[in-house]
Amino acid sequence: MCSLEKRDRLFILKLTGDGEHRLNPTLLDSLRSTINKIRSDPSSSRSVLITTSDGKFFSNGYDLALAESNPSLSVVMDAKLRSLIADLISLPMPTIAAVTGHASAAGCILAMSHDYVLMRRDRGFLYMSELDIELKVPAWFMALIRVKIGSPAARRDVMLTAAKVTAEMGVEMGIVDSAYDSAAETVEAAVRLGEEIVMRGGDGHVYGKMRQTLLREVLVHTIGLDESASSASSGVRNTGSKL
Amino acid sequence: MCTLEKRGDLFLLTLTGDGEHRFHPDTIATILSLLEQAKSQSTRGSILITTANGKFFSNGFDLAWAQTAGSITGAANRLHQMVESFKPVVAALLDLPMPTIAALNGHAAAAGLMLALSHDYVFMRKDRGVLYMSEVDIGLSMPDYFSALVRAKIGTSAARRELLLSGKKIRGEEAVGLGIVDSAAYDSEEGVVEASVRLGEKLAAKKWSGEVYASIRKSLYPELCGILGLEARVFATPKL
């Protein structure tokens, strides 16, 4: 499902195995508990998270076949992903997605929920597929899209043409920070970036709070954060789902 | 004043004749009714292209008609009437269950530019035509939905300043640089329309569900939709 490696101050979270890493309830639970483990590690506020994957896919989104066989599971998967994203947004450390395979719909949202997106240019794309597969786009997905993609034209291209965004296109659109020639190079670059960030020092708790204010609009949707609540004192952690 | 033609998958809405295509209440009502017609005939793969004949795409509201009211209050009421009745046109375009392309044959000013910006894609000419928000020059204040549309579609504060606060007449190349239009690579009216048709055919080939398309479009612009009173509808049965 997913593995966690610690290299000095880098936490490397990997979606394992050769499949599509569909975000079904089991994988989502596994990811959340791994993130919680990272958060409670004593070195967490001086560390960096790198998320990557094995194989052809970063993640191909929700497990739609599962949802079709049991419609109530759509709600469950959405709730669990919201909680996971809220956890990532409040995580007291910088986060890097090393995208080494396709990231579609919810999988693309997962990648984009990281502070830095590094991606291989030789294969793979980011793909908000909902228009093509006639799936509703949750309001909180749109909040993340609006926060992470600055240009109205790029947002339109991503959502209203269901563009298959390669790393090069992603860099131009401002969705991807940098592009590399292979999966291995992407991960290496993420490790280098992680190490640079660690060297800068700084308090991860402060970082996490600042990120929450930047992504406030997303948190309003994911954990029902009251827009009028003051962010400074509330120390918002993930108070989301009990699922 | 305004026609709707169907060419295969494409609905072509044209502001006809050689004038400034100013929006008088009658023009506005006609445009609205033609948009409703397109909506009622829409199928998967439908596309709307809006263009005009002559030197102007549209020079905005019919201010001369407002002036002939004979009093300052009368003029203000007429202007208010046009502002209010144009709002549903913007809403209808945001709600239209098909991709929309504005092919600017010529100048687009004020409400005329708002009509253009209400489309998903905007193409203009390189050699002719300017974009111009005249309000700062003529001392008119901006309706709330105009500002919301500008905020929704134009991403940088510098571009918004140039458009709204400088009284500048913005030509094609600069409009592309500012992110106001998608392309200004065309040297003629035919060129702009052809490019729109080419894009239209490419999008039509995807055979997207118009309902899904419109829903996702509206979710891109929540502030604007709130002001226009548009809600995105909820549905989710994925094609697996």
Automatic annotation (TrEMBL), chain A:
Top enzyme class: isomerase
Catalytic activity: a (3Z)-enoyl-CoA = a 4-saturated (2E)-enoyl-CoA; a (3E)-enoyl-CoA = a 4-saturated (2E)-enoyl-CoA
Pathway assigned in UniProt: Lipid metabolism; fatty acid beta-oxidation
Enzyme Commission (EC) number: 5.3.3.8
GO cellular component: peroxisome
GO function terms (MF aspect): delta(3)-delta(2)-enoyl-CoA isomerase activity
Keyword terms of this UniProt record: Fatty acid metabolism, Isomerase, Lipid metabolism
Gene3D superfamilies the record matches: 2-enoyl-CoA Hydratase, Chain A, domain 1 (3.90.226.10)
Family affiliation: Belongs to the enoyl-CoA hydratase/isomerase family.
Record PANTHER family: ENOYL-COA DELTA ISOMERASE 1, PEROXISOMAL, ENOYL-COA HYDRATASE-RELATED
Identification of the protein by name: Delta(3)-Delta(2)-enoyl-CoA isomerase
Source organism (scientific name): Arabidopsis arenosa
Automatic annotation (TrEMBL), chain B:
EC number: 5.3.3.8
GO MF annotations, alphabetized: delta(3)-delta(2)-enoyl-CoA isomerase activity
Pathway where this protein functions: Lipid metabolism; fatty acid beta-oxidation
Superkingdom field: Eukaryota
Record's keyword annotation contains DNA repair: no
Catalytic class of the enzyme: isomerase
GO cellular-component term (any): peroxisome
Pfam families the UniProt entry points to: ECH_1 (PF00378)
Reaction(s) the record says it catalyses: a (3Z)-enoyl-CoA = a 4-saturated (2E)-enoyl-CoA; a (3E)-enoyl-CoA = a 4-saturated (2E)-enoyl-CoA
Biological process according to GO: fatty acid beta-oxidation
Coiled coil region boundaries: none
SUPFAM superfamilies: ClpP/crotonase (SSF52096)
UniProt KW Lipoprotein keyword: no
PANTHER family in UniProt: ENOYL-COA HYDRATASE-RELATED, ENOYL-COA HYDRATASE_ISOMERASE FAMILY PROTEIN
Family listed: Belongs to the enoyl-CoA hydratase/isomerase family.
UniProt protein name: Delta(3)-Delta(2)-enoyl-CoA isomerase
Organism encoding this protein: Arabidopsis arenosa (Sand rock-cress)
